[in-house]
Design a protein that fits this description.
This protein has 271 residues and is mainly beta. Helices cover 11% and strands 52% of the residues. The model is unreliable at 1-26, 208-215 and 258-271 (pLDDT under 50).
Length: 271
């Protein structure tokens, strides 16, 4: 049976690494060239197949919407059935990415939760809603959700030996993701059968309850303008988690449906 910290790393991995590859298409937001894409990943714990994840990105009226679905396989369903849906939305502000919504609908065995984060960037605030109770946090404009932060990493002109920082808000915390690009490169086989030169990127997250301080994560991204995540490995207390890209496709983007934002009532509190 997979221990709880390992299961959390699996879920975080499914969430963070379901990143799309760049495609050339019309009607894309100015700061988000990835709409119209689909990617699939296989997730394993050491030599055990643990589950899978998908991500689809669509254009919205003013920006983009990324939908991720993560699930355990039939074997792990017996111990810890996971069916998690994540939706991240954002817009372009003066040519830069700005997250607007991060919805997490979690179903992990008997545990269920619906969490919604709204980036009220024009007010330099963020609202976090769970169990119909909203909390407010002072967060300057320009902060991103975890999903959008990793999309932002792919847009960077990554250089070997360099370190990059991206401001995020996640799970009631505001901080910067530190992204290191190692000097060495490796060649991996992509799911379409080609050998791909890869940069080795090591991001550091600080969100409590997802990654421990001793946790290590490595992402192999294609060494080109697309920075496709071909492989990921996370060291945990009980072994390692591996993620492999298994499929990619790109279609003409369509306008995604959106839902009205949640408005906090009098039970919201300023933090």
């Amino acid at each position: 049976m997979v221990k709880r910290p390992a299961r959390r790393i699996v879920l975080a991995t499914l969430l963070l690494l379901s990143l799309p590859a760049t495609a050339m298409a019309d009607n894309k937001p100015a700061c988000m060239p990835y709409t119209g894409e689909h990617m699939s990943f296989n997730v394993g714990w050491e030599f055990i197949n643990a589950g899978s994840a998908t991500m689809d990105i669509a254009a919205t009226e003013h920006g983009w919407q990324a939908k991720t679905f993560a699930r355990t396989n039939e074997m792990l369903d017996l111990f810890k059935k996971v069916r998690d849906h994540i939706t991240a939305e954002g817009i372009c502000v003066n040519g830069h990415m700005q997250s607007t919504v991060f919805d997490a609908n979690l179903h992990e065995r008997k545990y269920t939760a619906q969490k919604r984060t709204e980036f009220l960037w024009q007010q330099n605030r963020v609202s976090y809603t769970q169990h119909q109770i909203s909390e407010f946090f002072d967060v300057p404009a320009g902060h991103l959700s975890v999903i959008d932060a990793f999309l932002a990493v792919r847009k960077l002109d990554l250089k070997a030996g360099e370190t990059y920082r991206i401001p995020i808000f996640d799970s009631r915390e505001r901080y910067e993701i530190e992204v290191n690009v190692q000097k060495r490169r490796e060649t991996l086989t992509a799911p379409w059968g080609e050998k791909v030169n890869c940069l080795i990127v090591t991001p550091k997250l600080k969100t409590a309850g997802i990654f421990t301080n001793r946790g290590e994560m490595t992402i192999w991204m294609s060494d080109d303008a697309r920075h496709i995540p071909i492989k990921m490995m996370a060291k945990i207390k009980f072994g390692r988690i591996f993620v492999h890209l298994t499929a990619y496709s790109s279609d003409t983007p369509v306008v995604a449906s959106t839902t009205p934002p949640i408005t906090a009532g009098n039970n919201g509190k300023q933090l």
